[in-house]
Amino acid sequence: MITTAPKMMRLQRTIIAGKRAYHDLVTLPGSKPIVSSGPPGYSAVSGHRVTVFGCTGFLGRYLVSKLGKMGTQVIVPFRDEDEARLFKPMGDLGQIVRMGWDMRDDQTIAECLRHSDTVYNLVGRDYETKNYDFRAANALGSERIAKIAAECGVSQFIQVSHLNASKTSPSKFYQAKAEGEELVKAVFPSATIVRPGPMFGYEDKFLTNMAVWPIWWKLNHGQTTTRPVHVMDVAQGLANLMTNPQFSKTLTLPGPSTLTYEYLLELVSSVTLQPASRAPVVPKGVATVLAKIGQNVWWPSLSPDEVTRRYIDDADVPGDWDAVGVQPSEIETHAITYLRRYRSAENYVRPVVFPPRPAPSLVAE
């Protein structure tokens, strides 16, 4: 029987995992030490314990995946058990901790973040329900989470807002997002506010929605400008904030280009190889009435406030991507990935030809 000397075993572990060094130690506000260990990747131990509220949403799923691959222990609060099942394979054994919570129950919120050093708040909703209006979902809930986080001694609080958040906006959703920022800052002064632009990706409400319901994107004759950003870029930027904090700052993360809905509809048509929609442009008043009627169904539909947002241009502000260490990618780079399924069988593998972009004088780049 062959035996291995203890010194050889220690040498093998040192070569594979590496020794701990000074850069493995991070001291958070309050002198709380964070020590990472193990090989980089899925089975690493970053030393961080993070809570992601709103993890079952579009952005939250990608953020949890990014954090799990970094070896971070992630607490994922959920309301529906079925929605939380997808988190099981996103981290090594014991790294993804699922916990039930209620946004109106302080005790469950405290239990979800009591032992965390970083808290991400992605909770929000761009339509109203019978239980939560815009203010309750996007402002008051954020204030409650931030207040409890401050009381529990959380070192870093990251509030995800929206690029167009403004107290003077005609959209109640954008108003609520702006109010949420103010309320969070009032109870957690060192909080980081992140304002991403409209996000696209798998199962999004942007590119895939244009492929299914192009008529609602023709509002304002498609001349509304937007700055779409890849959801993976935003998720990576948020994950980087865990190790490279930006305390008390407001970071904007818009897409790299400003485009019109008209161009994006042409892009979707060229990628899916489906003819452009010939549906007429619906007047704003008619669209608002139809949206109000649509609120009687039991599934999410176009809301009256969303009709208002289709007439609001995205904010023309510089991005802070350097602060989060990410270079955002253009929408054309990923369009075929998310739209190929709308092609017919005979066109499935045909090459992609993008429409020409509007002249710079018409659309600011």
Uncertain regions: pLDDT < 50 for 5+ in a row? 6-17, 361-365
Overall residue-averaged pLDDT value: 88
CATH T-level fold name of the domain at 36-200 and 229-253: Rossmann fold
Largest sheet: 7 strands, parallel
Describe the structure.
The protein is of the alpha/beta class. The chain has a domain at 36-200 and 229-253: 3-Layer(aba) Sandwich (Rossmann fold), CATH 3.40.50.720. The chain is built from 13 helices and 13 strands. The chain has helices at residues 6-17, 58-69, 81-84, 106-113, 134-151, 172-187, 207-212, 231-243, 261-272, 284-294, 304-309, 321-324, 331-339, and strands at residues 25-28, 32-35, 49-53, 73-78, 96-100, 118-121, 156-160, 192-196, 199-200, 225-226, 229-230, 250-253, 259-260. β7, α6 (172-187) and β8 (192-196) form a beta-alpha-beta unit. Residues 6-17 and 361-365 have low confidence and may be disordered. GO terms for molecular function: protein-containing complex binding. This is NAD-dependent epimerase/dehydratase domain-containing protein.
Keywords:
single chain; alpha/beta; Rossmann fold; seven-stranded parallel sheet; globular; disordered C terminus; protein-containing complex binding; NAD-dependent epimerase/dehydratase domain-containing protein; Epimerase_deHydtase; NAD(P)-bd_dom_sf
What's the gist of this structure?
The protein is α/β, with parallel strands linked by helices and 365 residues long.
How are the secondary structure elements laid out?
Elements: H1 6-17, E1 25-28, E2 32-35, E3 49-53, H2 58-69, E4 73-78, H3 81-84, E5 96-100, H4 106-113, E6 118-121, H5 134-151, E7 156-160, H6 172-187, E8 192-196, E9 199-200, H7 207-212, E10 225-226, E11 229-230, H8 231-243, E12 250-253, E13 259-260, H9 261-272, H10 284-294, H11 304-309, H12 321-324, H13 331-339
